[in-house]
Amino acid sequence: MLIRPETPADLPAIHQLVTLAFASAAHSDGTEQDLVDALRAGGHCALSLVAVQDNEIVGHVLFSPATVGTHPVAALAPLAVHPDCQRQGIGAALVREGHRQIAALGYDWSVVLGSETYYPRFGYQPARALGIRAPFDVPDENFMAIRLRPDAPALSGVMQYVPEFGI
Ligand SMILES: CC(C)(COP(=O)(O)OP(=O)(O)OC[C@H]1O[C@@H](n2cnc3c(N)ncnc32)[C@H](O)[C@@H]1OP(=O)(O)O)[C@@H](O)C(=O)NCCC(=O)NCCS
Q: Which pLDDT score is estimated for 5?
């Protein structure tokens, strides 16, 4: 399995993969693939990686720029793995490589809205305890953040997503 940045030729396959992955997801509004397209079109894709196996795109992760107060943070969303390829470590590999690359781009925090049983394995903790509040109503355990560098500054404020999220 190879993880690499998306290329223009990947876009239809990414759209299809995200659609398929979220079709059976517990928490989905069915529009995650449109969010990916909108973020890219709006110039708000900070990092988009694909996982490739046997020349097929089997996983995808996107990070968009966000802010907490005036501090830039990365928003991890969405993360998708093909239903036939789940539970093989592809999602974990995308998150870990995503963290490495987004940190190299200068982001020292990542924030995610997601499963409290999945993301803590990467070091995510409830964001509220770290000073980051969600701009919507959500259980504290599902809105999580991680310092990507030990010297990341402490944050205090409400997370502001880019407009494509419609928040
Ligand atoms: C969530 C998802 C990206 C995980 O990818 P993956 O490649 O299957 O995950 P990994 O192989 O890295 O990790 C497998 C572990 O994640 C757990 N897991 C998988 N999907 C999960 C989910 N939706 N919620 C919580 N845990 C999940 C598995 O139970 C497994 O746990 P274990 O290691 O304790 O057995 C994938 O299941 C997916 O695309 N789901 C549909 C879309 C979605 O819900 N995306 C997340 C949005 S926050």
A: 98
